[in-house]
């Protein structure tokens, strides 16, 4: 039986980074992957495919130039599913090659097959041909990711009634679409297909969307969705979904509303991919969504077994998952780290993008922290005028006592890039005065930081 210092189950960002970090610390590490190809959900059905699809849509429909040339502007008149998926497949192949190279270069062993615990230190792997092998590990990292949750009242047919994974295999671009679930995935895909002029209805039993995002950012975002004709059916439960004789999908809400569409996508949350692990043999148990509970060190109830990434729940992003994997490996082998989870940025790749770092106004009020805000609209910048940007908002939160930056929140084009300025300043204890005195390239969207800071300065000095 082979022995490893660290055995990682799952080869997504969290698993990759954990194994590579262990290898860099001189430890013997291996990754077990149930698919024939590494990459996990991020490479195959999640982050890379969905963001590539987004870019393909925005390019082909001329989205970024509509503010200049008008809403009818398009790069390609008739956009097909093949147009969208071609770029996706190329990008995924390239990303997988990079992952394979990184694991190989760092000496990480890749084991193909389905993993299950035999005991807290022993994992059995069953290959695609049915052969089994057992491996002993001093430390284990569970990074199995998630799979879409499929509500029992939705008759999935993998053609016109699908989950978010199925969206990557559509045969034609829908003219109308119902999205059930207004979480990150649902909002991203709803806005992406809205950019293709599909008639979108977004349904959620909750009365709000993206509760973890600052309220002003959500308000700006909702205004943009509604101006594009996206129907928000919030506080609505789905009673039934059926396929009509003409191929359309009929969605009936409990309120009595009926919605006909070409396509229905369910984005009703995700389930931790832990069902096949035999967790009980390792002394562990998952919750009703298959997720594992961890300590701040990412240790589970069994100290030498760690869990990272989507399988532990929010924020369930590729970037945060990767850092969780690295931190778990560092903790396992007593290596020091200087990472601060409170400074992890969150990105939502909707159209437009949303990105946040630090505290929201609601959190600051609950914590009793005195603060002041500064706001800038992206259209106020010269770059915004040049690019014809109509929407977009940057909001900064500063401590009233020492003027330190407490939070940065952005909705608009390039938000997931712009957020890193706020992240860096916050991580180094930067203040309002830094932004007031800073010089940003002109014209850039980054200028919005100075505009927002001056807005806050006027209030602080009042």
Q: Give a count of the beta strands, DSSP E runs of length 2 or more.
A: 22
Give the class from helix and strand content and strand pairing. Answer: alpha/beta
What's the oligomerization state?
single chain
What coarse outline follows from CA principal-axis ratios? globular
Poorly predicted segments: none
Mean pLDDT: 91
CATH topology of the largest domain: FAD/NAD(P)-binding domain
| Total of helices | 13
Percentage of β-strand residues: 15-25%
Instruction: Determine and state the CATH class of the largest domain.
Output: Alpha Beta
Radius of gyration: 23 Å
Helical fraction equals 25-40%
Terminal CA distance reads 71 Å
Assign the CATH architecture of the largest domain: 3-Layer(bba) Sandwich
The tally of domains stands at 3
What report would you give on this structure?
The protein has three domains: 2-148 and 271-341, FAD/NAD(P)-binding domain (3-Layer(bba) Sandwich); 161-268, FAD/NAD(P)-binding domain; 352-461, FAD/NAD-linked reductase, C-terminal dimerisation domain (Enolase-like, domain 1). The protein is 32% helix and 25% strand. It contains 13 helices and 22 strands. It has helices at 13-24, 40-44, 47-60, 66-69, 81-105, 184-194, 215-227, 318-332, 361-367, 382-387, 415-427, 432-437, 447-461, and strands at residues 2-9, 29-33, 109-112, 114-119, 122-126, 132-142, 146-148, 161-163, 176-180, 199-204, 231-234, 238-243, 249-253, 258-261, 263-266, 270-272, 305-307, 346-348, 354-358, 371-377, 393-399, 405-411. Helix 7 links the parallel strand 10 (199-204) and strand 11. Helix 1 (13-24) runs parallel beside helix 8 and helix 3 (47-60) packs antiparallel against helix 5 (81-105). The chain is globular and about 65 Å long. The model has no long low-confidence stretch (mean pLDDT 91).
